[in-house]
Amino acid sequence: MPGLSYPIATQRLLLRPLRAGDGAAVHAYHRLEAVARYQSWTERSADDVADRLAEWADLDGTDPEAKALVLGVTLKGSDRIIGDMVLLFTDRAARQAEVGFTFNPDFHGQGLGSEAVAALMRFGFEIYGLHRICGRCDARNEPSWKLMARLGMRREAHFREHAIFKGRWDEEFHYAVLEDEWRLEQGRAD
Ligand SMILES: CC(C)(COP(=O)(O)OP(=O)(O)OC[C@H]1O[C@@H](n2cnc3c(N)ncnc32)[C@H](O)[C@@H]1OP(=O)(O)O)[C@@H](O)C(=O)NCCC(=O)NCCS
């Protein structure tokens, strides 16, 4: 992929592909119920994390046909992973992607998730030429939808009791931003 270069630096963070050696750092938060609560998965064992890392190592952006890009996040000055993010390429022809993000609770509440996801979105629009980036979350997952709103994503839908999620009715918010809207916001911020 032209323009692909790691790590991606933000003010406080570095974004890079994940590797097998990140197992302990990723397991430290993927094992927590509070982190898995609103995800499609349940608390992960160390072996589950090792399996995911093996899969994600191939999703480093080098294959233009890959179904997703997965990046880990570290603080500058440390190589320990504090969060991970995905851009899932849902429709290549229409340049659509869905963003996902998971951070270690030890690093919540500092704007680090927003900073990292903002950089991933920039990467998606500028390097991948995306037209639209969306995100979904459980309506009870306030930190998640607040993060998306903070980054200029619009709430496009609230699906009421449309599925069963972990044994109860699912309430889901859909957020999205178009490339044009995103560029307009960037221009205002500059
Ligand atoms: C979703 C998730 C990444 C959000 O984490 P977060 O730390 O709340 O999000 P941000 O990085 O955007 O930080 C925002 C918070 O930091 C505060 N903050 C402090 N310094 C800040 C700064 N410099 N810039 C921005 N926000 C700052 C904000 O006020 C906000 O706190 P508030 O919500 O109490 O007002 C996190 O809750 C998570 O990983 N959850 C588990 C996994 C999950 O559910 N993922 C989503 C699945 S859909």
UniProtKB/TrEMBL annotation:
One of its GO terms (molecular function) is acyltransferase activity, transferring groups other than amino-acyl groups. SUPFAM superfamilies: Acyl-CoA N-acyltransferases (Nat). The keyword Amino-acid biosynthesis does not apply. It holds the Pfam family Acetyltransf_3. Keywords: Transferase. It comes from the Bacteria. PROSITE patterns: GNAT (PS51186). InterPro entries: Acyl_CoA_acyltransferase (IPR016181), GNAT_dom (IPR000182), N-acetyltransferase (IPR051531). Residues 13-171 form the N-acetyltransferase domain. This is RimJ/RimL family protein N-acetyltransferase.
